[in-house]
Structure formats: C-alpha cells, structure tokens
C-alpha cells in the first residue's frame, strides 16, 4: 500500500509578489545610483550609497523570493484579511489634508491636529495623554529641525514656527 500523498504547499502568493515588487524597486535604486556615479570607496560619488543600498535590497528581495518559492506561503488575499479599512482611509485622508494645509497653517499649527487625529482615531488614546503627546512631540520635533539642524519649516499665514 502506497503512503498517502501530502499536498504540496502552495507556491507563489503574497510573498512572491512582495519579493518581485521589492526586487523591481531595488533594481531601480541600483540603476539610479549607477547613473549618479558610484565613485570609489576613498572618493564616493553621489550614487555610492544608493547603489550599495539597492544591491542590499536586491539581496533581501531575492531571499524573500527564494523562501516563497521553496516553502510556499499565504495567498495574496491573506494580506488584506482583517484590514481595518476605516483607519486606513482616515490615515490617508489626514495625511492628504496635512499636505494641503501645511504651507497655509505652518508646521506647528498643522502638525498638532494631525497628531491628535492619529492618536485618537487610529488607536484611540485618552485625551489626557493625546493632547500633551501631540503638543510636546510636535514642539520637540520643531525645535530639533528648526533650531538644531537649522531646517526651514513653513511658518504659515500666522507666522508661527
């Protein structure tokens, strides 16, 4: 009597598509780094970091592809199972509104409401925690960017920031 046949793990699926996507992105990064000029280790060119980072990304994506093809994995639909679409839409809409209002309101007045929406809407945090975290993290980031790193941030119509 023959041993029962065990079905093979499905090949392909989500990991194969992810590996192919990141391989394409990494090859684009390698290409961009090569176009900018790699230079040498002693005198690196503008594309040195891009080129080598792209090669590392290529290696990682090939490892994902190899694992997906040899071991199988979940299907593409498994990526979206259990997704909380309302929170995804809220995040995308918040970031779009932030991008639209950043120049008009300025960094400080636009970032604090964004942080509040994200803290309260995505994974709700009590107001007692959300208000100081939004204000202090925004002001702290503003101070680092504006004062320490001397990066010009939008001040908005009110000139705050």
From TrEMBL:
Keyword Membrane annotated: yes
Organism: Methylobacterium isbiliense
Classification via InterPro entries: DUF1468
Protein name: DUF1468 domain-containing protein
Residue ranges of every copy of the DUF1468 domain listed in the record: 17-154
Domain of life: Bacteria
Entry keyword annotation includes Flavoprotein: no
Annotated Pfam families: TctB
Annotated keywords: Membrane, Transmembrane, Transmembrane helix
Transmembrane segments: 48-81, 88-119, 125-145
Lineage, top ranks: Bacteria, Pseudomonadati, Pseudomonadota, Alphaproteobacteria, Hyphomicrobiales
């Amino acid at each position: 009597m023959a041993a029962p046949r065990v079905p093979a793990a499905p090949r392909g699926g989500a990991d194969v598509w992810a590996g192919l996507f990141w391989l394409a992105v990494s090859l684009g990064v390698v290409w961009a780094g090569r176009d900018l000029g790699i230079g040498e280790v002693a005198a690196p060119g503008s594309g040195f970091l891009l080129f080598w980072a792209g090669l590392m990304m290529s290696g990682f994506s090939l490892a994902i592809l190899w694992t997906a093809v040899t071991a199988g994995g979940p299907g593409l639909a498994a990526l979206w199972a259990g997704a909380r679409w309302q929170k995804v839409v809220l995040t995308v809409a918040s970031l779009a509104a932030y991008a639209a209002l950043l120049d008009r309101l300025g960094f400080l007045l636009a970032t604090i409401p964004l942080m509040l929406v994200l803290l309260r809407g995505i994974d709700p945090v009590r107001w007692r925690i959300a208000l100081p975290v939004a204000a202090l993290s925004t002001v702290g980031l503003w101070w680092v960017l504006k004062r320490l790193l001397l990066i010009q941030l939008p001040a908005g119509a009110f000139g705050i920031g």
